[in-house]
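Run: sequence + calcium ion -> complex structure.
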Amino acid sequence: AKADGKGGYATFTAELNVAAQRRVRLEESLRLTILRDELSLAVQSQFGPAGDIRGAEVLVRWLRGPEGVPVSPAEFIPVAEASGLIKPLTLTVFRQALEIAAQLKAAGLRIPLSINLSSDLFRDSALIDALVDLVADSVVTPDALMLEITESLFIDTHPDLLRNMARLAELGFAFSLDDFGTGYSNLAYLKRLHLSELKIDKSFVDGLPQDEDNRAIVLSIISIARQLRLRVVAEGVETSAQADFLVAHGCELLQGYLLHKPSPAEEWLGQLMDGIEK
Ligand code: C2E
Ligand code: CA
Ligand code: CA
Ligand code: CA
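>> structure
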């Protein structure tokens, strides 16, 4: 390797160190944030073709990171996954989501909440037990939730994963396969999982309806979903041309900035409640 020079080995090493240091700082800070119960949730509504609210996804928020400004989950979720902090983080998210679900139930609203679950957690029976207990101890039933799992994990359908998933399905939990098509699509495993829903990743929705490749991918996903009797959700819908294309081709649920930007949980609930009072 080069010893120095612009863009050479030394610079590369220095950049690596900066990145590594940031990760360490994020991890330490995230640990404290979870301990102090300072993570919060944003909620993004999902709509049917007629514009009716059908569900909502909860997204974790870290509003005051080490620099006092928000840190994106795209940055801190991988840190949480690599450090084991993903377990207490997920418990916090579940607890808060169950509180929202309880308020929806009290208001007579049937709006299932989608919760993101990192794939590796499905192999952790103790954590699954803890999540099941949280739900059992709440007024909420499993059908008020939708568990979103990311596709990458299914590279190998680990027996523990299949067992835990089957157990949860038996208890009435439903599953959505998140970011479908971005991982190692082995279609054979789709049958073996207890899925209710496929979620089309934003990267495929981008460029619709012009982009030929994305159009072909989206149409195939909708067709696969139909044949396996799974519901399809499209995420990252930003334009009405995208929405029109998706609805015209049988996508049942739409999620994206065009329809609703994620808003803080209290605000989201407040607006819903205002809506039913009128
Ligand atoms: P995801 O599950 O694919 O979630 C969708 C992401 O796209 C969210 O970003 C959402 O805010 C954003 N989004 C929604 N509609 C639009 C749109 O129309 N345009 C654009 N540009 N973006 C849109 P967010 O909240 O930053 O989350 C990023 C990722 O972090 C999520 O991707 C998910 O994989 C992960 N994540 C978020 N919350 C949790 C959590 O509680 N647990 C776990 N394990 N992962 C989480
Ligand atoms: Ca998701
Ligand atoms: Ca995801
Ligand atoms: Ca996605």
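>> summary
The first helix runs from residue 9 to 35. The mean pLDDT is 91.
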